[in-house]
Design brief:
alpha+beta, 10-stranded mixed sheet, 16 strands, single chain, Glutamine amidotransferase domain-containing protein, GATASE, ChyE-like, 4-stranded antiparallel sheet
């Protein structure tokens, strides 16, 4: 990797496994935001670092930032240069994800090439990032009916997938700043085979006016139309800028959006879900245990414990045991350890070997 072309931040942690996230910055922050919070990459680094630190055990994150708007001096990296990256996050932007700009087309092709070349790479995107990822996978992206803006603090009604991802019921709230939207979720057919036929593509939430607020493909794609890292000052600045340029035409809507800008939102909650469910993987811990009492052992976070991809064969044993009707029993200890992603705890008996797997 050509390190000189990237900006890197790292956050330490007691957890030995680290994920490396490439943040593709598709816009620049306003000067007032830059002075307070830095670039969009800096904002996401701070947000996801906070989410990782709040997790037990803490999750280590390294962000590699790359500004990619080529008309403004950015550069889209070569796909061959990102092989050491675990995940890609694409930020929001003032540009149209459905546009015909040369750099937009290059970014669409970059996504498709990286998706195909690196089958274990995870992709996430926010606002523009959500839209262009879906476009690259064959979804239609266009302005909303009547070119009505969705602005500021907005309720998002969760599907069953959303409730599972965010570990909450019914609804969350995120800041919105968009007029374009994803019309239909991507499919294997629309992606021309990039999405596997057996992949489950689900929409995790909808708002009153936008039916697709985010798309989820297990261990591959996690997007959000709503912004995760916006604060009150950012929302107000973006609304004022768009109103002054005549993009937002309804003055009453603009004022109402600014009035709601200070309300609490769930950006950190969504960032935490993306971090643990997408970046670290649905199966974050699968550990052989030889405890003679057949108790679940505390996860081994020593340096000898390998990342998810190297322990997946233990989970495959689980699948094999299920397919052969082997004994698989649910196990819920009185005081269970706080496993990452502990949506289910199962103790598997397979050929006299105890396998602890955390499944979703």
């Amino acid at each position: 990797m050509t390190t000189a072309s990237f900006t890197t931040n790292a956050t330490g942690s007691s957890h030995p496994d680290r994920i490396r996230v490439l943040v593709l910055e598709t816009d620049q922050t306003f000067e007032s935001t830059s002075e307070r919070k830095g670039t969009f990459g800096d904002i996401f680094h701070s947000l996801f670092s906070k989410a990782g630190q709040d997790h037990e055990p803490p999750l280590k994150l390294e962000t590699v930032m790359k500004f990619v708007v080529e008309p403004e001096g950015g550069k889209i990296p070569d796909v061959a240069d990102v092989g050491e990256i675990d995940a890609v996050l694409i930020t929001g932007s003032k540009y149209d994800a459905h546009g015909d700009d040369e750099w937009i087309w290059k970014l669409v092709q970059w996504i498709r090439s990286a998706w195909k070349k690196y089958p274990e790479m995870r992709f996430s995107g926010v606002c523009f990032g959500h839209q262009i990822l879906c476009r690259a996978l064959g979804s239609k992206v266009e302005p909303s009916p009547g070119e009505e803006w969705e602005l500021s603090h907005t309720q998002i009604n969760l599907t069953s997938t959303g409730e599972a991802l965010f570990r909450t019921k019914d609804k969350i709230f995120l800041h919105q700043m968009h007029v374009d939207h994803v019309v239909d979720a991507p499919t294997s057919s629309s992606s021309e085979g990039l999405i596997a036929d057996n992949s489950s593509v689900t929409v995790w939430g909808s708002s009153e006016t936008i039916p697709i607020q985010g798309v989820y493909i297990r261990e591959r794609l996690f997007t959000s139309q709503g912004h995760l890292g916006y604060d009150e000052q950012m929302v107000k600045k973006h609304v004022d800028s768009r109103f002054e340029k005549g993009l937002i035409k309804d003055e009453k809507q603009a004022e109402e959006a600014k009035e709601k800008a200070g309300l609490d939102h769930d950006g950190l909650l969504v960032a935490g879900a993306i971090l643990r469910r997408q970046y670290f993987g649905v199966v974050l811990e699968a550990q052989l245990t030889t405890n003679p009492r057949h108790q679940i052992s505390k996860p081994d976070y020593s340096k000898n414990n390998t990342p998810v991809r190297r322990i997946r064969h233990h989970v495959e044993r689980y699948s094999y045991a299920r397919s052969k009707n082997r004994r698989v029993k649910a196990y819920s200890p009185p005081n269970p350890f706080e496993f990452p992603l502990a949506d289910a705890r199962v103790l598997i008996t397979y050929k006299n070997t105890k396998v602890t797997a955390i499944l979703s």
